[in-house]
Amino acid sequence: MDPVRNPYAPGAGQRPPELAGRAKQLDAFDVVLERISRGRPERSVMLTGLRGVGKTVLLNQLRSAARARDWGTGKLEARPDQELRRPLASALHMAVRQIAVAHRNLEMVDDFLGILKAFALRATVDKGMRERWQPGIDVPAVTGRADSGDIEIDLVELLMEAAQVARDIGVGIAIFIDEMQDLGPADISAICGACHELSQEAAPLIVVGAGLPHLPAVLTASKSYSERLFSYHRIDRLDRDSADLALIAPAEREEVKFTSEALDSLYLKADGYPYFVQAYGKATWDLAAQSPITVEDVELAAPAAEEELAVGFFGSRYERATPAEREYMRAMAELSGDDGPVATAAIAKELGRRPASLSPARDGLIKKGLIYSAERGTIGFTVPHFGRYLRSVA
């Protein structure tokens, strides 16, 4: 098969040629946008799931849906070593600039940008950096709103001001936050507080977050009402029909078909995980000689797909771990079967160590996003089939 025509795209956050199995989430978000457009109160949205299930792809698709309605949108990716102020200011600046062109009262927009600049300049930096860094907002900072230095107070004031700009223009604003579980406790608390205020006021501004499976627990630990504050959507593996569609639809546009046995084999190998579906689909296409693609083509291509996953998807993460952290993960892999959560006490027993002595390794892996606290006393891999990979390299 011509590799230039290969339609499959196993890339980080890269939209697959056929976004299969996500109609429920897309339809639900359309309802949110329409309700807000009609002045009705609505909750912000949180997407959760393991790595490789397409959270970032879906987040980008939801952003496209908002932009199609002429909403202002901005996006940021949270990082454990970064405060929220700067990236949020940049995302909100982008969103307001998108909608400002439709508004004739530029003085009102400039007033908001002055508040936004004051908010951004309260970022915690050393004195020398404060003198050099500017947020790229070409208006004077306006003091007295969103500049107290308390992120919880400032974020409520800032987003309520942004929502008023959107309301005056007659549109909405949506801020998209990827890897949301990596925000610090103060920033998480501030977002929860701000979203609470926005919801109560039926303000035309929402936050759409994406994160690992423990994101709901992170939010609830910050504000007890968070379980009712957001609309949660768990993003999981594709069912059989959706996984088949993700393979068949792009191929048919290139006038290529799969045998039913080939699809059986591909689903078994990819296990419905969207990233794996794309990886196996791409490798199989490149190796197949002609249409229809057969089960023999799949079996011959599988080692190439698995090698690519071992290096780019699994190996790159494994290399980030320290020796102690790798030992911890290997014990998890032996106890968890493939991916399932395992009790931390069982890991300590497997390694013949006291649980407290393993806390640094566990905490390090959580900070690196390799494992997550599934529930109290248990740990799971953030990457599907990571346990299988670790057993293969042990």
From TrEMBL:
Gene3D superfamilies: P-loop containing nucleotide triphosphate hydrolases, Winged helix-like DNA-binding domain superfamily/Winged helix DNA-binding domain. The keyword DNA damage does not apply. The keyword Metal-binding applies. Keywords: Heme, Iron, Metal-binding. It holds the Pfam family AAA_16. InterPro entries: AAA_16, Cyt_c-like_dom, P-loop_NTPase, WH-like_DNA-bd_sf. Residues 167-333 form the Cytochrome c domain. GO terms for molecular function: electron transfer activity; heme binding; metal ion binding. Residues 1-20 are annotated as: Disordered. This is Cytochrome c domain-containing protein. It comes from Nocardia macrotermitis.
